[in-house]
Structure formats: C-alpha cells, structure tokens
Amino acid sequence: MASQTSTTAAPAKKVSTRSSLAERLRKLKKNRKNSKSAGPKTFSRLYVNGVVTSYKRGKRITHPNVSLVKIEGVNDRKTTDFYLGKRIAYIYHCKARPNKRVIWGKVCKAHGNSGVVH
C-alpha cells in the first residue's frame, strides 16, 4: 500500500477591506500634502507651435484641402517621424463671436527635407 501524506494548504491571503483601502487613501493624501512643500511643480507642455505656410501644390494645381505646416524646432525629415499621426489644431478668432474656433487635422507625411509636414 502506498503511504498517503496529508498536505495542509496555507491559508489564503486576506482580501483588503474597504476600511483598509480608506486608510491607504488617507496616507496617500497626507504624503501629497507633505510633498508639496518640497518644491514647485514642473509642468510639461503638450503642444508645439507651427506655421501654416501654404497649400499642397504642384506647378499649376493647388490642393486647398491639404495644408503645409512648418513645425517649430523641426528642421529635417528625420525629426518629422515623431509627429506622424499626431493631431493638429488650427485655432483662430471669429469676429462675429468672442470665442475661438478650431479646425482639427492630422499629420500624414513629410513634405520635402526641411521639416514641413502635410
């Protein structure tokens, strides 16, 4: 006959209750308050300025639905790769209304070797 060995399973970990979650949140809030006195916050800018230079065009035909945009700080074709697929917002003021209007677009490809994009 084969000998049988009894194995005892370790007790399962206790699932955290709402009270322990509330305690953790309180501690996090206290730590945030204390960390504010450490120094000023630094903010990162999530946009880059650009200039609409013209429409996409050939010798005779212009394509008014495709604008060429020169992005600030982009000077060659390799650095345009980062902006491919990113959204562009053309923000302008309307005379009839006091608020601003926005036309949205997307960077599709590079145009030439100087950092201009479609």
What does this structure look like?
With 118 residues, this protein is α+β, with helices and mostly antiparallel strands. The chain contains one helix and six strands, in the order H-E-E-E-E-E-E. A four-stranded antiparallel β-sheet has the order 1-2-6-5, with no helix packed on it. Strands 3-4 form a two-stranded antiparallel ribbon. The radius of gyration is 29 Å and the shape is elongated. The N and C termini lie far apart (81 Å). The mean pLDDT is 81.
Side by side, the strands of the main sheet go: 1-2-6-5
Shape: elongated
| Quaternary organisation of the protein chains | single chain
Given helix and strand content, the structural type is: alpha+beta
Number of strands: 6
- Major beta sheet summary: 4 strands, antiparallel
How much beta, percentage-wise?
25-35%
The ordered string of helix (H) and strand (E) elements is HEEEEEE
Mean pLDDT: 81
Give a quick summary of the entry.
This protein is of the alpha+beta class. The protein is 16% helix and 31% strand.
Task: Supply the key terms.
118 residues; two-stranded antiparallel sheet; elongated; 4-stranded antiparallel sheet; 6 strands; alpha+beta; single chain; 16% helix
